[in-house]
Amino acid sequence: MLNEREIESCYLGQFIPVHYHHNMLMDQNRMHGFKSAINYAVKPGAKVLELGGGTGVLSWFAAAKADKVYCVEFNPDMVKEARKMLTMNPNGHKVEVVHADAFEYLPPEPVDVVICEMIHVGMLREKQVEVMESFKRRYLARFGGPLPVFLPEAVIMAVQPLQQEYDFEGFYAPIVQFQETTVIYPGTIELAQPTVYSVLDFSQPTDTLIAWEGKFPIEKAGTLNAMRFVTKNILAVVEEESSTIDWLNHYMTLPLAQPIAARPGDVLQVSFQYRAGGSIPSLQAAIRADLVVETVAQPALRTAEFA
């Protein structure tokens, strides 16, 4: 019988199906970015902990240099999968796959690097922020400082107003969409530039509440009917080169329930708040978008809200 946390985990992304992890293995941008960042962050002889290990691939990247890697996974199916795959790869013996809850597990010794790739656009669904905050408190209580290096080191999140096409062979369906960042979609029109709404530095205490209010000068005429959420993960900061190793999540586009006409010169005011690790509908329910300045002088205020 599943307890309350396990039930929530099934719905909010902790028990990600095995085939989804296989898709992540085939994502070259993700794999290359993490391999590069781990190769930089993990020094020879290091001790490494991965929280939410999945197939174990990131722990395996770390094992190329590390003396010991603790790979924590809560899903019993993935524990079996990771153990099987690691036996097929050199250095796999350096990785200890631990069947445990990342909210509760601490390694038996201090570690140099902590990998936590529980990442969803907007820090939604998966419990990365909450898991890392819990880990930091428990780690300091047991081992004292300093804290290990975290990978990712930080995340930058932005939002952008769009006109989005929702015609699917004549069937109108305003749905949540995830889009490749390197593809041009003819049905997507950017009405204004994206604006950063949150920066999380995982080396510092991080609040799970994300709240923002800001304005966008509208640059293109169109029908405002969606908001795009952008998430850039700073996997590692390469100080000696003054650069970073990044991974950009797919764009997430959320439809507005009541589209409104927008013109160049209008000013769009947007506000929302949600909990990191919360559901996508929780963000949808919180968003409010208002055109507060219009090119044609009139008292009416055009408003769009999520259902």
Automatic annotation (TrEMBL):
Ranges for domain Methyltransferase: 48-137
Keyword terms of this UniProt record: Methyltransferase, Transferase
GO terms, biological process: methylation
UniProt-recorded Gene Ontology molecular function terms: histone methyltransferase activity; protein-arginine N-methyltransferase activity
TM helices/strands, residue ranges: none
Highest taxon in the source lineage: Bacteria
Calcium as UniProt keyword: no
Keyword match Transferase: yes
Pfam families from the UniProt entry: Methyltransf_25 (PF13649)
UniProt-listed PANTHER family: PROTEIN ARGININE N-METHYLTRANSFERASE, PROTEIN ARGININE N-METHYLTRANSFERASE 3
Protein name stated in the entry: Methyltransferase type 12
Organism, scientific name: Massilia eurypsychrophila
